[in-house]
Amino acid sequence: MSDEEFDDESDANELEKEGEDGEEEKESAEQEEERLISNPLTEEIMKEGLSLLCKTGNGLAHAYVKLEAKEKDLTDIGLLQNYIHLRYVDLSENQLRDLSPLGSLIHLLWLKVDGNRLTSATLQELPYLQIASFAHNHIKDTEGISHPRLGSLNLKGNKIQVISGLDPGKLANLHTLELRGNKIETTAGLHLPKLKNLYLAQNSISRLEGLQDLVQLTTLHLRDNQLVTLDGFSSNMKCLQYLNLRGNGITGLQEVAKLQVLPMLRALVLLDNPCADEGDYRLEILVLLSHLERLDKDFYEQEERMEAEELRQHRQEEEQDTEESGPGEPN
């Protein structure tokens, strides 16, 4: 056989091999999908994951009320409909797309379904659910969440762009909302007067809207967004004590002056904003916000407070003199 013939045969064999490899990869992908589709929750997994024996709701029997079934590649949890006494369920790091069987768990208090394939957090109303975590899924909105006793909701690391459907009448006890690491562009849609802690870091927020309804909010995280102005804060926010604005685009201290409408603000974080590079930054912030106790990582010392008070009074006297002399009078 000539070298040329050998090369041609080698090329043909290589192409055939590549074709076989491609088919194998395709078959592997199909098998993977088939494996995901056909991996339901089983009695054996339930037996391994059940714990915490307690009295049932009527007190006449006992049942296991806690289930942990993490990292099982589960695609179907239909079996859970038979375990109506469950109160604590952790189904994190599976392949779940459908949570409808959880609607039968009317005694559920605590739910964690982080790291699945969910595109929605919609669930049938669960009357006793208090803590729910849907972190790191593919959820695109905040619709369909209506659990009357829900206190803490975690939607971190999803694909939410707009906050909508959070009905204060159906979420009357929601005090903590975690929306870090989504694609949210505005704070509009947060009509939750009982909310105390709101985490909105690592989004694309450029507009602060609808904050006037957050009358009980004490903590607000807005780190690593796209804010350049601080319009939108409201004097209705009488409880806000901690505000994190690190890593935005706030350039001038005149924007910080807009925070004077927040009477209880005690801790402010402005690191990694252009305004933090201005001269006498710490002093100027304290002149504007006299009730502030901590800026960035450091508490204000008494000496700083005295200096800020003197500077504030001096500027007030200068303004008063200017007003009395009038703008048209010669020096």
UniProtKB/TrEMBL annotation:
- The main location class comes to cytoplasm
List, alphabetically, the InterPro entries matched. Leu-rich_rpt, LRR_dom_sf, SDS22/Internalin_LRR
| A GO term from the CC aspect | 9+2 motile cilium
GO BP annotations of the record are:
flagellated sperm motility; radial spoke assembly
Biased composition of type Acidic residues is found at 1-33, 318-331
SMART domains tied to this protein? LRR_SD22
Tell me the PANTHER family matching this sequence.
Answer: LEUCINE RICH REPEAT CONTAINING 23, LEUCINE-RICH REPEAT AND IQ DOMAIN-CONTAINING PROTEIN 1-RELATED
Task: Give the species.
Answer: Alligator sinensis (Chinese alligator)
Q: Where in the cell is it found?
A: Cytoplasm, Cytoskeleton, Flagellum axoneme
The name on file for this protein is Leucine-rich repeat-containing protein 23
Q: Where is this region: Disordered?
A: 1-40, 303-331
Has keyword Lipoprotein?
A: no
Q: Which portions of the chain have biased composition (kind: Basic and acidic residues)?
A: 303-317
UniProt keyword terms in alphabetical order: Cell projection, Cilium, Coiled coil, Cytoplasm, Cytoskeleton, Flagellum, Leucine-rich repeat, Repeat
**What is one Pfam family matched by this protein?**
LRR_9
Species classification = Eukaryota, Metazoa, Chordata, Craniata, Vertebrata
Protein purpose: Essential for sperm motility and male fertility. Plays an important role in the proper assembly of the third radial spoke (RS3) head and the bridge structure between RS2 and RS3 in the sperm flagella.
